[in-house]
Design a protein that fits this description.
Distance between the termini: 69 Å
Strand content: 15-25%
CATH class of the largest domain: Alpha Beta
Radius of gyration: 29 Å
Structural class: alpha+beta
CATH topology of the largest domain: Heat Shock Protein 90
């Protein structure tokens, strides 16, 4: 009798601990049993999804509209049937983004799934921040390239002109040498500023490129989040085959490269089919290869040589500044790598990035 009383007491304590956890957690969570009945939810879930205590014990089918995304029932069925954890980004009607995780609730005694626990982590600000970062990266890279390419050339020409002027006879122009010196000094100052911006990066420089050991899966996750709205709108399917996960590279540059290629694969999709993108990584000789292929509209043979030029777009249709592929090529080649592209018009394209392995 005492042993039974102790067991009951232990169960009560465990239940109180569980209730205390549900009351105090700051994350919206739901517990749904194997019959798809809502058994518990946390206070944040009550606020976010307008749930009431009277909803406890109701079939999730009756209150699915509260969650504002249509596939929740199918997702729950999938987890219960397979026992697999499901992770996906969802957007609610108020335009907030959440990372939704559906975890199987497994009874240890018989190892059977007896329901699911669903958690929601808001990632709206993270998506906005990532999009803003991509915008800043593109602007920054374009600025540096403009300075290093478009301004250095006329400055060099100006310097040569000054040297030629120095060799001309003065012919009574007393102030001519003084003016030449002033122009030359201004030229030297401009050259130094450009050198500081493009070549001589200080340790504390805000945009200093620092290589680090990266997880390609984490880079890809950031890209997927940044493009979440485009992926959802286009119903794009992104498949991966990651044979080489660890890559030594500059984080913002690798993210920008992958972002631009995946973004293009979605942007230049074929109207008659849903976009499918396959991303692979593998080692080939002394390089790590990132292979991104799609089933989009493809690239005409006449445009293959010009797509990496500044302000050139893969297609004249749709939006775009025409600097995405240009920046990808600049970033890859600046690190000693190379990029290749093959395309079948009307069927799709494949870009391969070869990144030298750092030893």
């Amino acid at each position: 009798m005492q042993n039974k009383t102790e067991k009951i007491s232990t169960l009560i304590e465990l239940n109180e601990e569980l209730e205390n956890y549900f009351r105090n957690t700051i994350i919206p969570q739901l517990f749904i049993d194997a019959h798809l009945i809502l058994r518990k939810f946390t206070p944040p879930a009550m606020r976010q999804f307008s749930l009431k205590l009277s909803d406890l014990g109701r079939p999730i089918e009756d209150i699915k509209e509260n969650f504002r995304f249509p596939t929740i029932i199918e997702n729950i069925h999938h987890v219960i049937d397979t026992g697999e954890v499901l992770e996906k980004e969802i957007q609610t009607t108020d335009l907030r983004w959440y990372q939704m995780n559906i975890l199987p609730y497994i009874v240890q005694k018989n190892k059977k799934t007896n329901g699911v626990i669903i958690t929601f982590v808001e990632i709206t600000m993270r998506i906005r921040d990532l999009k803003e970062q991509e915008k800043l990266i593109a602007e920054h890279e374009l600025l540096l390239d403009t300075i290093s390419h478009d301004i250095k050339t006329p400055l060099t020409s100006l310097g040569l002109t000054i040297e030629m002027l120095k060799q001309l006879p003065e012919k009574g122009m007393k102030r001519f040498p003084v003016l030449i010196v002033k122009v030359e000094n201004s030229l030297i100052k401009m050259q130094q500023i450009i050198y500081d911006l493009t070549d001589s990066r200080q340790q504390e420089h805000r945009y200093k490129a620092v290589e680090e050991l990266l997880s390609f899966e984490h880079i890809l996750e950031d890209v997927r989040l940044t493009l979440a709205s485009q992926i959802k709108e286009s119903n794009a399917k992104i498949k991966t085959d990651i044979s080489c996960s660890e890559i030594v590279y500059v984080r913002r540059k690798l993210r920008s490269v992958v972002y631009n290629l995946v973004n293009n694969a979605i942007k230049y999709r074929a109207e008659e089919r849903l976009p499918e993108i396959l991303i692979k990584t593998y080692k080939e000789h002394d390089a790590i290869v990132i292979d991104i292929s799609d089933n989009g509209i493809g690239i005409p043979e006449t445009e293959m040589k010009s797509i990496f030029q500044k302000y050139q777009r893969v297609s004249q249709s749709g939006e775009g500044s025409g600097i995405g592929l240009y920046l990808v090529k600049e970033i890859i080649e600046a690190s000693g790598g190379k990029i290749t592209v093959t395309s079948d018009l009307g069927k799709g394209s494949a870009f391969k990035l070869y990144l030298p392995i750092t030893t």
